[in-house]
Design brief:
With 167 residues, this protein is mainly alpha-helical.
Length: 167
């Protein structure tokens, strides 16, 4: 079907381009566009809308093509969604990696009472001097050694405190 044949069918129906466009629910420019074409695509949206108003010949059944089109669009949507979810997972993994390697200012109090300005251990909040590297004793001998050192330290502290009270 040609655009001239479409225009002739419209004129036989006694409609202007504007009236056909209004009844079909498309723009007047669409009617003009298809009437100027050497070949009219009967599956085009605007032509299908015009076919609801005009009696156009040889309109092929497009239900099967539309179903295939809908299946293709659904497959594309599923593929896009899968790609998006994979991208989100990659971003989450990157965030976790950055978080695990992040180094912040320690901020613990030093012996002078000022905040520590050293960087923390990766993924931790304290530096190696304020708990970032400390794992504590692991063997029974090491635990006993630490326990004895703490007893001696606190005994000295108590002794100094008692001597300070006497003066």
């Amino acid at each position: 079907m040609t655009g001239a044949e479409l225009a002739a069918i419209r004129e036989r129906a006694g409609l202007s381009q504007t009236e056909l466009a209004r009844q079909a629910g498309c723009g007047r420019q669409a009617v003009s566009y298809w009437e100027c074409k050497p070949m009219v695509d009967l599956r085009a949206w605007a032509v299908e809308r015009m076919a609801t108003v005009l009696d156009l010949p040889d309109i092929p059944p497009v239900a099967r093509a539309r179903a295939a089109w809908a299946d293709m669009l659904a497959a594309e949507d599923a593929a896009r969604e899968a790609a998006f979810l994979a991208h989100v997972r990659r971003l989450q993994m990157q965030c976790e990696t950055v978080r695990a390697k992040r180094r912040v200012i320690c901020g613990a109090r030093t012996r002078k009472g000022t905040p520590c300005r050293a960087k923390s251990e990766p993924g931790r909040r304290r530096c190696k001097f304020h708990g970032g590297k400390s794992t504590g004793a692991r063997t029974p001998e090491g635990i006993a050694r630490i326990r004895e050192a703490q007893r001696q330290r606190w005994a000295r502290w108590r002794l100094c405190r008692k001597e300070g009270d006497k003066t």
